């Protein structure tokens, strides 16, 4: 009886430890990073993606993103402890010691690079590694606590996954992956500032100069609007002049883009409206997810056949 209780407790604490390490990686953000990687791989392979390669690339990407997020949790432990929203994270909550988290982050980073270098190629490994370094050094260390442009420049880290995906398929980079990079780069300010409008008091409390804290709500919603105005045309560059995607993607990108602009415009008219800010933040995630899905579907050979048949039917 005593032994079985002991074993139970050991299991409980083992489970709790694993959960804490899992939480260090900020796991809810990773799927969307992977979706952008996968979409890029589908376009690069013209709809004929090699499934083992896809699996290894997504695994390597997961390890790299998890490493980056863990390093961020170590560096930001002081402010994470101060903010209500982040106080329960494993390091401020005292569940994981920073030096153990550091070992964990280094292991994840090394595993990621090794996986890419051994099974995919060195370029994709270096790109994933550059994502970790950029997010940690440029965003977290250099910009986050020093400038209101922190997430504009820092957003480059989150825009790297499509480069990784493209390099994994082709072994190099061309215009298309850079357009995907630019699309996510421009998408990041509306995504994050909409959220920052809701949690600006948290950031103000720990002196992190997020735009709504420094410049106020009106300036922030204007900036959100200008970046949204750029996101939509950039999403269409994949159709023209790049000719990578066709009519199906174009239609979906225009409908989603229209909704993005409506939501950004509504927020611009009512800068203090938390519901509109929350709505835009949530929609930004939905937007990128669906846009990537449209890229995948449009690039499939079966879609090309269907579109060609429809054209013949309609145009004769
Ligand atoms: C510098 C760039 C970015 C910043 C500063 C940022 C910031 C944030 C923050 C603070 C949250 C709330 C997370 C929380 O409550 O713990 C969040 C949520 C989220 N972010 Fe971003 N983000 C950035 C870029 C990205 C990118 C590139 C992606 C994916 C392509 C992404 C995907 C998400 C998703 C999916 C969520 C929702 C997670 C949930 O369900 O709670 N973010 N972001
Ligand atoms: C290729 C590769 C490895 C890319 C990784 C890039 C990456 C980890 C992007 C995530 C960006 C993000 C969610 C930032 C959160 O900001 P924050 O940490 O300032 O938010 P907080 O206020 O919640 O701490």
Structure described in brief:
The chain has 316 residues and is mainly alpha-helical. It has helices at 2-24, 30-44, 51-75, 77-82, 98-119, 122-143, 150-158, 161-170, 175-198, 200-205, 211-236, 247-269, 274-299, 301-315.
Structural commentary:
By secondary structure, the protein is mainly alpha-helical. It folds into two domains: 23-172, Tetracycline Repressor, domain 2; 174-299, Four Helix Bundle (Hemerythrin (Met), subunit A), CATH 1.20.120. It is 80% helix and 0% strand. Helix 2 (30-44) runs parallel beside helix 8, helix 6 (122-143) runs antiparallel to helix 8 and helix 9 runs antiparallel to helix 13 (274-299). It is globular, with a radius of gyration of 21 Å. The mean pLDDT is 96. Bound molecules: protoporphyrin IX containing FE (HEM) and farnesyl diphosphate. The site of farnesyl diphosphate (FPP) has 18 residues, from helix 3, helix 6, helix 7 and helix 8.
Helix content: over 70%
Parts with pLDDT < 50 across at least 5 consecutive residues: none
Span of the ends, CA to CA? 80 Å
The beta-strand count equals: 0
Helix and strand succession? HHHHHHHHHHHHHH
- Compute the number of structural domains: 2
The general outline is globular
Percent strand equals under 5%
Bound molecules: protoporphyrin IX containing FE, farnesyl diphosphate
CATH superfamily of the largest domain: UbiA prenyltransferase
Could you please say which CATH topology of the largest domain applies here?
Tetracycline Repressor, domain 2
Mean pLDDT: 96
Main sheet record: none
**CATH hierarchy: architecture of the largest domain:** Orthogonal Bundle
CATH class of the largest domain: Mainly Alpha
Number of H- or I-type helical stretches: 14
Rg from alpha-carbon coordinates: 21 Å
Structural class: mainly alpha
Transmembrane segments: 29-45, 51-75, 96-116, 122-139, 151-169, 175-199, 220-240, 246-267, 279-297
Membrane topology: Multi-pass membrane protein
InterPro entries: Protohaem_IX_farnesylTrfase, UbiA_prenyltransferase, UbiA_prenylTrfase_CS, UbiA_sf
Organism: Synechocystis salina LEGE 00031
């Amino acid at each position: 009886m005593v032994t079985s209780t002991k074993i139970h407790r050991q299991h409980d604490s083992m489970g709790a430890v694993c959960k804490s390490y899992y939480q260090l990686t900020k796991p809810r953000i990773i799927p969307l990073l992977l979706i952008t990687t996968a979409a890029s791989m589908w376009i690069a392979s013209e709809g004929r993606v090699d499934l083992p390669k896809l699996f290894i690339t997504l695994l390597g990407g997961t390890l790299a993103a998890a490493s980056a997020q863990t390093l961020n949790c170590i560096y930001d432990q002081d402010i994470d402890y101060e903010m209500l929203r982040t106080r329960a994270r494993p390091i401020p909550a005292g569940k994981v010691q920073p030096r153990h988290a550091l070992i964990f982050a280094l292991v994840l980073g090394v595993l990621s690079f090794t996986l890419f270098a051994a099974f995919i190629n060195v370029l994709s490994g270096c790109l994933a590694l550059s994502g970790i370094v950029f997010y940690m050094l440029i965003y977290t260390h250099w910009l986050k606590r020093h400038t209101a442009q922190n997430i504009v420049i820092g957003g480059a880290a989150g825009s790297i996954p499509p480069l990784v995906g493209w390099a994994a398929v082709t072994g190099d980079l061309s215009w298309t992956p850079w357009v995907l990079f630019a699309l996510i780069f421009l998408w990041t300010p509306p995504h994050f500032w909409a959220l920052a409008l809701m949690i600006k008091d948290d950031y103000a409390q720990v002196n992190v100069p997020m735009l709504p804290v420094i410049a106020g709500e009106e300036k922030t919603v204007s900036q959100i609007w200008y970046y949204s105005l750029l996101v939509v045309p950039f999403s269409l560059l994949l159709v023209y002049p790049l000719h990578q995607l066709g009519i199906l993607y174009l239609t979906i990108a225009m409908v989603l883009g229209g909704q993005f602009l409506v939501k950004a415009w509504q927020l611009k008219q009512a800068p203090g409206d938390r519901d509109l800010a929350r709505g835009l933040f949530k929609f930004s995630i939905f937007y990128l997810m669906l846009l990537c899905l449209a890229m995948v579907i449009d690039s499939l050979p079966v879609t090309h056949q269907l579109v060609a048949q429809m054209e013949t039917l309609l145009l004769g």
